[in-house]
Amino acid sequence: MSDTPLNPLDSPSLPGVSDTPQITLASASPRRRELLQQIQVCCEVLPVDIDESALAGEAPEQHVQRLAQQKAAAGFALQPLRPALGSDTIVVIDNEVLGKPADRQHAIEMLSKLSGRSHQVMTAVALHSADKQGGLLSTSEVCLCELSAAQIEAYWQTGEPLDKAGGYAVQGLAAQFIVTISGSYSGIMGLPLYETAKLLRQHGVYTGVPG
Questions:
Q1: Domain count for the chain
Q2: pLDDT 10s digits, 58-103
Q3: Residue 179 lies inside a defined structural domain of this protein
Q4: 85 pairs with which residues across the strands?
Q5: What is the DSSP string of 34-90?
Q6: Is the full-model pTM beyond 0.90?
Q7: Which residues fall within 8 angstroms of residue 149, CB to CB, at 6 or more apart?
Q8: Half-sphere exposure of 80 toward its Cβ, with a 13 Å CA cutoff?
Q9: Residues classed as catalytic
Q10: What's the domain range around 78?
């Protein structure tokens, strides 16, 4: 008997596991694609461009869920032959939404605000198909250590903060700044796998194990 572990993706007997895209991922994020691969979901990546501005009086949780739903709908419009998945992540502190930093100064301001404090990371996921739509929200609590001005500057120079909500990446160098996490690690990365798998199963998409 071979000592090499079997790769489930190599087995044609497993239902739903295929190289054929099961869904459209309406996002350019490589992290989201990797997280889908983790639960054996094959996707076609079709990034969408929507206006991500907040509406007047819109609460953070309403904002992030609306954007995820709009992304899913836009993805389905591009490819209506399969369900489309949209997701959006925001960082919230003192009820203020921190998106991706526009530049160095913006990133410094964000990280200074998060330094030594707890904040929320909200990630909404939505699925849109011809006959049904659904969405779920994951909210996690993250506490960063006290960051010196030198640490923040050095971190900015790595290039990591530029395209990250709140100006940091939990799966990157910023992991050394995180004191505690309460909630979904994959949600903080950008795609909460529990909620995502639940939605996918509701749409008949196989997620590596039976629902």
A1: 1
A2: 999 999 999 999 999 999 999 999 999 999 999 999 999 998 999 9
A3: yes
A4: 25, 127
A5: HHHHHTT--EEE-------PPPTT--HHHHHHHHHHHHHHHHHHH-TTS-EEEEEEE
A6: no
A7: 108, 112
A8: 3
A9: 88
A10: 8-202
